[in-house]
Write a structure and sequence with these properties.
Elements (H helix, E strand, L loop, with lengths): L3 H13 L2 E2 L4 E4 L4 E3 H5 L3 E7 L4 H17 L4 E7 L9 H7 L5 E4 L16 E5 L4 E7 L5 H18 L1
Parallel strand pairs: 4-5, 5-6
Antiparallel strand pairs: 1-8, 2-3, 2-6, 4-7, 7-8
């Protein structure tokens, strides 16, 4: 038992650490390149990975729009990141328009950022604190998940105030 304890402590410590995002560059819908660091811009940021062919993604978007508007005054932003590849990326602008998305949309056509999370499910959301550290992740969408998302945003906002 004594030999196992140090290993357990190391594992607990490793998993207790907040993870940081890799520094990548992504294009917006006007083909302008942005660094992830600039996009985060010291704000609490909800990154939401989606694709035009993902039905649960479309259902989640109206909630993300509302969350974006509700928390904007508290230095919170929502950034949608389409992982459509070169064959389907042409549909992104139409989707954004039809869903009336008011938050920033970026393109990760090569999935450089998305692949860092070792997931293949969508939608996939990551909450990043102003220091660029991941404080929460969530895979998939079922009705009610938006409440969990908002609870995590509120928790992160409270944590910022206490720091």
């Amino acid at each position: 038992m004594i030999r196992i304890l140090p290993i357990l402590l190391i594992v607990a410590f490793a998993f207790g650490q907040e993870k940081s995002l890799p520094q990548v560059k992504l294009k917006d819908l006007k083909n302008k390149t942005h660094s992830l660091e600039k996009i985060l811009d010291g704000k609490l940021t909800l990154l939401n990975f989606w694709a035009t062919y993902c039905v649960p993604c479309r259902k989640e978007m109206k909630h993300l729009n509302r969350i974006s508007k509700t928390y904007a005054a508290q230095n919170v932003q929502v950034v949608g990141i389409s992982i459509d590849d070169s064959r389907t990326v042409g549909r992104v602008k139409t989707m954004v328009k039809s869903q009336k998305l008011a938050y920033t949309i970026l393109l990760d056509t090569d999935q450089k950022l998305y692949k860092n999370f070792n997931t293949s499910a969508m939608p996939f959301s990551v909450l990043v604190n102003p220091a660029g550290q991941i404080v929460w992740q969530h895979t998939g969408y079922i009705p009610g998940d938006e409440s969990k998302m908002e609870a995590e945003i509120k928790k992160a906002l409270t944590s910022q105030k206490n720091d």
